[in-house]
Amino acid sequence: MLVLDAAATERGLSMAELVQALREAFATPATVPLRHAHKIESEGYEGTSLIMPAWSMDGFYGVKIINIFPRNAERGLPGLHGIYALFDARTGVPLAFLDADVLTAYRTAAASALAASYLAAKEARRLLVVGAGRVARLLPAAMAVVRPIDEVRIWSRTGASAARLAAELSASGHETAVVADLEAGVRAADIVSCATLSTVALVEGSWLAPGTHLDLIGSFTPAMREADGACFQRGSVFVDTDEAQAKAGDILSAIAEGSLQPKDIRANLTELVAGSHQGRRDSDEITVFKAVGSALEDLAAARLVYQHHISSSGS
Predict the structure, then answer these.
(1) Residue percentage of the chain with pLDDT more than 90
(2) pTM above 0.85, yes or no
(3) Closest residue by Cα to residue 9 from 72, 65, 82
(4) Domains plus CATH for the chain?
């Protein structure tokens, strides 16, 4: 059985290959039970533990345990930690343990790009990343797989974090700068991608210019929110899976406020990949993609890493 730490897991992930692996995964029959969510409390600290299983028809079964502790920043720690176990679905034999933090970050950014391949304007080149964490760092490379991104702007509540990420991205070849005014940044962007743990709306619908694609991938519990109800009123709404309607604070808040009705959600990723919905209809349409994450994405990413290591080792 392989035991792959963060560095080894990351070595097995190419963003272009991962976007394609997710496209294939959403087009292939698989079983994805609803995730288990558990509140964890200890010594005054609170977090959420998610248990996410999935198995495919081609012989792979995986389970992710991911722990989200928002107050970790106070201790200088990332907010998410987890492990991923990959098994042979035909025998139950363990195949690999992988770093779920890396896996989650990569598959989240790749799913965002997969959605953008159907929902963002073809000529979209200006990307605003809202947030400066692990997933935010990967978004420019992910979006560049599907759109001609040549301008990246970063906004974060913590200016120092935004500056660090902008410097890192600039060093890797992206034309990147920090945006101090979120409204101005949103108004100037072709794609606005939010990757935060916010519990209050950050982006306002009135800021969205015609043709903007709004990507909401940070919040994944009913208590979290990155966009106000007007975003859902103005935009054509898409989700990663139907589970988003029960788990995403953005969706639940918009429905509670009367800004969105469940019937107005146009399609999920499976339907977009299958071509049963066309996605973006014209260059002026505002599109909104809301993701809560899927164990199917984790399984596709873990399989990619496993096969990369098996191939490179000659096993």
Answers:
(1) 81
(2) yes
(3) 82
(4) 2-103+296-313 (3.30.1780.10), 105-293 (3.40.50.720)
